[in-house]
Amino acid sequence: MKYENVNWKVFEFKAIFREIKRGKRLTKANHIDGKTPYISSSALNNGVDNFISNNDNIRKFDNSLSLANSGSVGACFYHKYEYVASDHITSLKLDDENADEYIYLFMATIVKRLEEKYSFNREINDIRIKREKLILPADENGNPNFEYMSNFVKNIQKENIEKMLNYI
């Protein structure tokens, strides 16, 4: 698929993501050591701040994007595994239940562009995020072209693997 043959269209967040949900507050003092990643508003380590085993008064997510609302505002990562999100994170679950990891990786790059719009002084709150829009590849029916997104990321990964193998 060639980049120049793609139609792009503006979509609202709420039309793309079936679940836009913020995590819950869990102070460091209340963390119980464990194996579940705790995602905070860091731009480092895919946002993983700790590994915990808490089960009460938390929100667990999986196969979704984490978007930092404050701190490293706009940092966005894909997590195919179960994680606990802090109250400074919004989890974004795509509307398409068949979305693969490549689509999520494509979307993470697009969503991450919000960091250009927001800052520490202008955080992404629940109202703002639901009003946000994304420019995405669209199919002939005007729907998000998830197949293109998936193939685009697969091709990038393939090219990088080929370069690495040639280097080795």
Written account of the structure:
Helix 2 (101-111) crosses helix 4 (146-167). The strands form three sheets. A four-stranded antiparallel β-sheet has the order 2-9-6-7. The chain contains four helices and ten strands, in the order βαββββββββααβα. It has 168 residues and is α+β, with helices and mostly antiparallel strands. The model has no long low-confidence stretch (mean pLDDT 92). A hairpin with an 8-residue loop joins strand 3 (33-39) and strand 4. The radius of gyration is 17 Å and the shape is globular. The longest helix has 22 residues, at 146-167. The chain has helices spanning 13-16, 101-111, 126-131, 146-167; strands spanning 7-12, 17-22, 33-39, 48-52, 60-61, 64-68, 76-79, 83-85, 89-94, 133-138. The two termini are 28 Å apart.
For the structure shown, list the relevant keywords.
168 residues, four-stranded antiparallel β-sheet, four-stranded mixed β-sheet, 26% helix, globular
